[in-house]
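Entry:
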Amino acid sequence: MALPVSGTEHAYTAQKGEWLFIPVSLPEAKIGGGDFYNLKVELDAHDERTEYTLVNGGVKVRSENTGIFKVLLSVNHVTKSSCAGVEVKQYSDDEIQIHVIE
């Protein structure tokens, strides 16, 4: 079970190899299409032993390495006109710190 670190909502402690669920709220897309939000996930751990998967309502991350790493979660607002032009604007940006322990 992963627990938030005391005093901050953007830091978690998780067991090595354990999937940690991080909730991410995306705004509703407009009915009719052409206006929606997507989630971009970046890990500062550049190894094959740290991974993530997108799930309904957020993202799950896990690492087989102990230590501290960061996850950058960016929500983008994507609009597409009928003329095939696409515009992307950053809607929100959160940095999550994860302390992985044995």
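The domain at 3-101 is CATH 2.60.40.1080 (Immunoglobulin-like).
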